[in-house]
Specification:
Residues 20-93 form the (S)-ureidoglycine aminohydrolase cupin domain. This is Two-component response regulator ARR22-like. This protein has one helix at residues 16-22, and strands at 9-12, 29-32, 35-40, 45-58, 65-68, 71-75, 80-95. With 109 residues, the protein is mainly β. The longest helix has 7 residues, at 16-22.
Length: 109
């Protein structure tokens, strides 16, 4: 059971200096079209949305976190959630590289 202490942190409209300090423009990019996605984060992810609108529903919670274009979002390691994407997403992302343990069995159905 995942503890309910896993929280998605959203920073609205971070400053340009913070974005350049994080070197976001060098991060890989990822996008998805509108729809519902089941996601599990095996490492902490920081992402900056260039486009999109998302409601993230953490597993086992009735509450959701909403974020979109211009938001800097930190998703904790171990969180499972459903992304309800209303507007197609285009984002820069980075996984925390504090050497996560190797995935011994990747069973995705």
């Amino acid at each position: 059971m995942a503890g309910n202490n896993l929280r998605i942190v959203v920073e609205r409209n971070p400053s340009e200096s913070k974005l350049s300090e994080l070197n976001i423009k060098c991060w890989p990019k990822w996008g998805c079209s509108p729809g519902k996605y089941q996601l599990k984060f095996d490492a902490e992810e920081t992402c900056y949305l260039l486009k999109g609108k998302v409601k993230a529903y953490p597993k086992g919670s009735s509450e959701f976190v909403e974020f979109g274009a211009g938001d800097l979002v930190v998703i904790p390691k171990g969180l499972s959630c459903t992304w309800d994407v209303a507007v197609a997403v285009d984002k820069h992302y980075k996984f925390e590289s504090s050497s996560p343990p190797p995935a011994s069995s990747s069973s995705s159905k």
